[in-house]
Amino acid sequence: MKKPNEARAPLPILTALAAATLTASLGLSVASVLLPTLTRSFDVTVSDAQWVVLAYLMAVTVAIVSAGRLGDLFGHRRVMVSG
């Protein structure tokens, strides 16, 4: 039986945080790798297609800042668990 003041196992917590960070980084990589395909598919220049990546980065940035604020208001663990 666990004691009430016993610390949680750090490995599952570290794994969950690493997975969340990897997901955000992977999304950026996918958007960057997609640029040549976007330029060919939509017959646009690379600079035009870069606006798509910029819009994606701005949306992710707003989501991260908003999630941080929600974490400040309601607790970081509760926000992380709720997704």
From TrEMBL:
Domain of life: Bacteria
Keyword Ribosomal protein: no
GO molecular function: transmembrane transporter activity
Transmembrane spans: 51-70
Ranges for domain Major facilitator superfamily (MFS) profile: 13-83
Cellular compartment(s): Membrane
Bilayer topology term: Multi-pass membrane protein
One cellular component (GO) term of this entry: membrane
Gene3D superfamilies on file: Multidrug resistance protein D
Pfam families assigned to the protein according to its UniProt record, in alphabetical order: MFS_1
SUPFAM superfamilies for the chain: MFS general substrate transporter (SSF103473)
PANTHER family noted in UniProt: MAJOR FACILITATOR SUPERFAMILY MULTIDRUG TRANSPORTER MFSC
The protein, known as: Putative transport protein
Species of provenance: Salipiger mucosus DSM 16094
